[in-house]
Amino acid sequence: MGSGFTIGRVGHIGVQVTDMDRSLEFYTETLGLTLTGRWPMGEEGAMAFLRFTDMHHDIVLFTHPKHEEDTNRHIGYKGLQHIAMEVENRDEWLKALADLKRKGVEIVSGPLVHGPESQPWNIGGSGTRSFYFLDPDGNSLELYCDMMKVPDGEQFPRQEYQDVFKD
Length: 167
Ligand SMILES: [Fe+2]
Known about the structure:
This protein is of the alpha+beta class. It has two domains: 1-66, 2,3-Dihydroxybiphenyl 1,2-Dioxygenase, domain 1; 80-167, 2,3-Dihydroxybiphenyl 1,2-Dioxygenase, domain 1 (Roll). Helices cover 17% and strands 35% of the residues. The protein has three helices and eight strands; from the N terminus they run E-H-E-E-E-E-H-E-E-E-H. The chain has an eight-stranded mixed beta sheet with strand order 2-3-4-1-5-8-7-6. It is globular and about 45 Å long. The termini are far apart. It binds fe (ii) ion.
């Protein structure tokens, strides 16, 4: 059974970490990535988006301080959080979503847009259309398109729309 859509590349990966400050220092100071933004996630968790050049993120760090109570079957407290694969555009993304559903693959999160247009709290989102599913071992996979770029030296989210979406 072939796939009814085309994946372009591995777009970014999510890494589960136990100490966000320590990991941020390592990924920025030691490896030289740029921090696009760091935002809270859930009750006490955090996520930080890091980039190599001008894509909103290439690596995402996540913490879940309450990991022992986390019953989410596909997210541990350290190690790989998810692998994200990029498709060319919305058309390809919808084809992928339809194709996987047709094949009986369970969509565990999404489809959604990472931004205030579908998540009012998420002004820092990258704008991707995304959905998540699992490989046979329970590893979390994401398929997405339409990631924003953050040109060198610019801040994200941009001031022009940051004010409008404030609570
Ligand atoms: Fe992702």
